[in-house]
C-alpha cells in the first residue's frame, strides 16, 4: 500500500499531463483565441472571487448576470454576422427599437384590454409577427442597398439607422410606450430550473447561429464573402443573395433582442439602449471576430460576452460606477488586441528562426 | 482618369456639384415655404449653430481621406473641454494657456489613437471605439458628470466682429465661432491641397501599399492625421463651451456618427483617398439647411427621416454611377 501510492500518483500525474496536453492541443486547434479568452475568464473569476469572498461566487450573482446578458448578447450576434461577412450593421439598435415600438403599439393601443386566454395569445402572436415582418423588411432594405448598389455597409446602415430611427421619433415624438401583457413580461422575469428564460433564448439562438454559420452552405458562403467577395463571386456563388441574407438575419436577431428588451424594461422607445451599438462591436472584436471579415466564431463571442458581463457584475458588486466598467471594457479590448499582436509577432519570428536553422542544416 | 467629352456631364458627376444643386433646390423650397428662411440673420445663425460640427467634420474629413475612421473625437472634445474649463475656473488660467492646453491634450489623445492603430494593426474604427469608451467613461467617472457653469468671462462673452441690422429689423452678426470655423476650413483645405503632408495623406488613403513603397512613412503620417483631428476636437470643445456658456461632459456624446455621415455625404469615401474640403462643407450645409428649414416649418420631428432618406438616396446615386463607370471600364469578355 505504502509503496504503491507514489506509483499511482505518478501514473495519474502522467495521465493528467497527457490529457491536459490533449486539451490544450484541442483548444489550440480551435483557435488560440479561445484559450486566451478562457484564461481571461478564469483569471477574472479568481480575481473577483478573491476580492469579493462569499458574494461573487454565488448562485444569485450568476443568475443576475444571466438576467442582464441576453439583450446585449442577441444584439452582439446581430452585429457578428455582418462583421464576419466583411460588413457592419450600424442599424441594429434602431431596428430593435422600431420593432419594439411596433409590437408595443399593437399590444397597448390596438389590443382590447380585457383580452385573455386564446385571444390574448392571438394578439401577442400578431404583434410578434408584425415585428418580425418589419425587421425582415429593414433587413431587405439594408441588404439590397449593400448587395445591388455595391455601397459600403457602414454607409448603408448609417443611412438605414438614421431613417429607421427618424421614423420612430417622428411617429412617437420621443415618447415611450409601456404596460405590456403579463405573458410577454414573463420572458424576462421568470426562470426555468433557476435559469432565466431570456438566457435560454440567448443560448439557443447562439447555438443556432453557430450551426448556421459553420454547418450550412449559407454560413460557409458568409465566411467566404467576408474573406474575398470577388473570388466568391467568381466561384459561382450568388454573392448578392448571400449579402441580402446577412442583413436579413442580422435584423431578425434584432427582432429577438427587441422582444427581450420590451420584456425587461416593460417599455419601448426610439432612444433606448443607444449606447449598446458600439459595445456590440467591442464584444464581437474581443471575441475574435476579424474586423476585416471572413473569420470569427460564435463560441468566442459568447466567451467575450461572459467576460464583459463578469467585469460589469464584479465592478458593480465592488461598488464602482458603471462608467468605470465601460472604460475597463475598452481597456480589455485594447489589451486583448495587444496580446494577440504580440503573439503573432513571436510566432512569425519563431517561424523565421526555425526556417533559418533548417536552411543552415541543409 | 475618367474620359468625358461633355463638360456638363463631367461637372454633374462630381459630388460637389450634385450637392450644390440639391442645396439650391432645397433652399428654394424652404424660402417659398417660410419667409424667414432666406434672411441674412437666419443665414448667420445657421452658420454659427453649425460651427462646431464643421470644425469636427474638417478633422474627420482628413482621417477619412487617409483611409481610417475615428469616432473618438467627441470624447476627445469633451475631455479637453472639461480639463480646460477646470484650469480656467480653479486656477484662473488666461486665454492662451487654456486654449493651448485644450489643443495639446487633443493632439495627445489623437496621437494615442494613431499609435494604437499602427502598432496593433487593427482597423482604426475598432481602436477608436475602445479609446472613445475609455476617454469618455474616465471623464464621467472622474467628474461624476457635474457641469462647470462658472466659466470666466473671456470664455463666455460673445465676441462680435461685425454686426448689422437687416431691413426686417433682425440682427446679423459675425462672431468668433464663425471666424474660427473659417480659419479651420481654410487651414484644412491648404493642408490637404498645398502641402506635402496633404498629398501623402491622399496617396496613403488611395493605396497604402503603394504609398509605403514609394517611401511614405506610415507612423508619422498617421500621427499627423489623428493628431490633427485631436487638435480640431480640442478647438471644437472650446468653441462649443463658448457657445453654450458651460462645460457639460455629456454635451457632445452621441454626435460621432452624425459628423462622419456629414463628411461622407460631402464626398469623402470610407475607402480613403478621395474627397474635398468644399464637398464636406456642402455636406454640413445641406444637413444644416434641412434642419433649419424643418424647424422653421415646425416639423422638426421629420429631421431624422429626411436625413436618412438623403443619405440613402445620395449613396445609391453615387453607387449606381460608380457601378456604371466600372462596368464601362471592364474589357469586353464575350
In short:
The complex is a heterodimer of chains A (362) and B (334). Chain A has helices at 5-29, 32-51, 59-84, 92-110, 117-149, 153-172, 182-189, 197-215, 217-227, 229-234, 239-265, 276-286, 298-318, 322-361, and strands at residues 177-178, 191-192, 195-196, 267-268.
Question: How many β-strand stretches of chain B?
Answer: 2
List the uncertain runs of chain A: 1-8
Order of helices and strands of chain A: HHHHHHEHEEHHHHEHHH
Percentage of residues in DSSP E strands of chain A: under 5%
Helix content of chain A: over 70%
Mean pLDDT of chain A: 83
For the report, how would you describe the main beta sheet of chain B?
2 strands, antiparallel
> How many domains, in number, for the residues of chain B?
1
| Count, helices of chain A | 14
Describe the model:
Helix content of chain A is 79%, strand content 2%. Chain A has 14 helices and four strands. In chain A, the strands form two sheets. A two-stranded antiparallel sheet of chain A has the order 1-4. In chain A, α3 crosses α12 (276-286), α4 (92-110) runs antiparallel to α5 and α9 (217-227) packs across α11 (239-265). Chain A is globular, with a radius of gyration of 24 Å. Chain B is mainly α and 334 residues long. Chain B has one domain: ABC transporter involved in vitamin B12 uptake, BtuC (Orthogonal Bundle), CATH 1.10.3470. Chain B has helices spanning 7-13, 15-33, 40-49, 51-65, 73-90, 95-120, 124-143, 153-156, 176-194, 196-206, 208-213, 218-244, 256-265, 277-296, 303-329, and strands spanning 160-165, 171-175. Chain B has a two-stranded antiparallel sheet. In chain B, a hairpin with a 5-residue loop joins β1 (160-165) and β2. Chain B starts with 6 loop residues before the first helix and ends in a 5-residue tail after the last helix.
Amino acid at each position: 500500500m505504502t509503496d504503491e501510492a507514489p506509483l499511482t500518483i505518478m501514473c495519474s500525474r502522467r495521465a493528467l499531463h497527457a490529457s491536459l496536453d490533449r486539451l490544450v492541443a484541442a483548444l489550440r486547434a480551435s483557435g488560440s483565441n479561445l484559450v486566451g479568452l478562457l484564461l481571461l475568464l478564469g483569471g477574472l473569476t479568481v480575481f473577483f472571487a478573491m476580492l469579493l469572498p462569499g458574494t461573487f461566487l454565488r448562485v444569485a450573482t450568476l443568475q443576475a448576470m444571466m438576467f442582464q446578458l441576453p439583450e446585449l448578447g442577441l444584439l452582439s450576434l446581430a452585429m457578428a454576422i455582418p462583421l464576419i461577412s466583411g460588413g457592419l450593421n450600424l442599424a441594429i439598435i434602431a431596428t430593435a427599437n422600431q420593432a419594439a415600438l411596433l409590437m408595443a403599439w399593437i399590444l397597448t393601443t390596438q389590443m382590447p384590454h380585457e383580452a385573455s386566454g386564446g385571444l390574448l395569445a392571438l394578439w401577442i402572436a400578431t404583434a410578434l409577427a408584425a415585428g418580425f415582418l418589419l425587421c425582415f423588411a429593414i433587413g431587405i432594405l439594408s441588404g439590397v442597398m449593400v448587395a445591388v448598389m455595391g455601397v459600403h455597409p457602414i454607409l448603408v446602415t448609417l443611412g438605414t439607422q438614421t431613417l429607421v430611427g427618424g421614423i420612430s421619433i417622428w411617429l412617437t415624438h420621443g415618447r415611450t410606450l409601456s404596460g405590456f401583457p403579463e405573458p410577454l413580461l414573463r420572458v424576462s422575469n421568470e426562470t426555468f430550473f433557476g435559469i432565466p428564460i431570456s438566457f435560454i433564448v440567448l443560448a439557443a439562438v447562439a447555438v443556432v447561429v453557430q450551426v448556421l454559420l459553420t454547418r450550412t452552405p449559407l454560413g460557409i458562403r458568409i465566411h467566404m464573402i467576408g474573406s474575398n467577395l470577388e473570388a466568391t463571386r467568381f466561384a459561382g456563388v450568388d454573392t448578392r443573395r448571400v449579402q441580402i441574407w446577412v442583413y436579413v438575419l442580422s435584423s431578425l436577431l434584432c427582432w429577438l433582442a427587441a422582444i427581450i428588451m420590451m420584456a425587461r424594461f416593460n417599455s419601448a422607445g426610439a432612444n433606448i439602449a443607444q449606447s449598446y451599438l458600439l459595445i456590440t462591436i467591442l464584444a464581437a472584436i474581443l471575441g475574435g471576430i476579424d474586423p476585416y471579415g471572413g473569420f470569427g466564431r460564435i463560441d468566442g463571442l459568447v466567451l467575450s460576452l461572459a467576460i464583459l458581463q463578469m467585469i460589469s457584475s464584479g465592478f458593480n458588486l465592488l461598488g464602482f460606477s458603471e462608467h468605470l466598467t465601460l472604460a475597463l471594457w475598452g481597456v480589455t479590448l485594447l489589451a486583448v488586441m495587444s496580446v494577440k499582436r504580440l503573439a503573432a509577432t513571436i510566432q512569425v519570428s519563431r517561424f523565421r528562426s526555425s526556417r533559418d536553422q533548417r536552411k543552415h542544416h541543409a | 482618369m475618367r474620359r468625358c467629352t461633355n463638360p456638363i456631364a463631367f461637372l454633374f458627376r462630381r459630388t460637389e456639384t450634385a450637392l450644390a444643386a440639391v442645396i439650391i433646390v432645397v433652399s428654394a423650397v424652404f424660402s417659398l415655404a417660410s419667409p424667414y428662411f432666406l434672411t441674412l440673420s437666419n443665414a448667420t445663425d445657421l452658420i454659427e449653430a453649425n460651427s462646431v460640427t464643421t470644425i469636427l467634420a474638417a478633422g474627420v474629413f482628413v482621417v477619412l481621406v487617409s483611409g481610417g475612421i475615428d469616432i473618438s473625437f467627441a470624447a476627445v472634445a469633451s475631455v479637453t473641454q472639461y480639463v480646460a474649463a477646470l484650469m480656467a475656473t480653479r486656477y484662473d488660467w488666461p486665454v492662451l494657456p487654456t486654449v493651448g492646453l485644450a489643443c495639446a491634450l487633443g493632439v495627445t489623445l489623437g496621437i494615442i489613437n494613431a499609435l494604437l492603430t499602427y502598432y496593433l494593426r487593427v482597423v482604426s474604427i475598432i481602436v477608436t471605439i475602445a479609446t472613445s469608451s475609455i476617454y469618455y467613461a474616465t471623464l464621467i467617472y472622474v467628474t461624476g458628470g457635474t457641469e462647470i457653469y462658472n466659466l470666466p468671462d473671456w470664455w463666455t462673452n460673445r465676441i462680435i466682429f461685425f454686426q448689422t441690422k437687416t431691413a426686417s429689423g433682425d440682427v446679423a452678426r459675425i462672431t468668433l465661432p464663425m471666424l474660427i470655423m473659417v480659419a479651420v476650413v481654410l487651414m484644412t483645405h491648404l493642408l490637404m491641397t498645398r502641402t506635402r503632408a496633404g498629398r501623402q495623406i491622399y496617396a496613403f488613403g488611395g493605396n497604402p501599399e503603394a504609398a509605403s513603397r514609394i517611401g511614405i512613412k506610415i507612423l508619422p503620417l498617421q500621427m499627423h492625421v489623428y493628431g490633427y483631428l485631436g487638435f480640431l476636437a480640442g478647438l471644437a470643445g472650446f468653441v462649443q463651451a463658448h457657445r453654450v456658456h458651460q462645460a457639460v461632459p455629456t454635451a457632445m456624446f452621441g454626435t460621432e456618427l452624425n459628423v462622419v455621415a456629414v463628411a461622407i455625404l460631402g464626398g469623402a469615401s470610407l475607402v480613403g483617398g478621395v474627397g474635398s474640403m468644399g464637398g464636406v462643407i456642402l455636406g454640413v450645409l445641406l444637413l444644416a439647411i434641412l434642419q433649419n428649414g424643418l424647424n422653421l416649418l415646425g416639423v422638426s420631428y421629420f429631421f431624422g427621416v429626411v436625413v436618412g432618406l438623403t443619405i440613402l438616396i445620395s449613396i445609391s446615386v453615387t453607387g449606381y454611377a460608380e457601378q456604371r463607370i466600372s462596368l464601362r471600364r471592364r474589357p469586353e469578355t464575350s
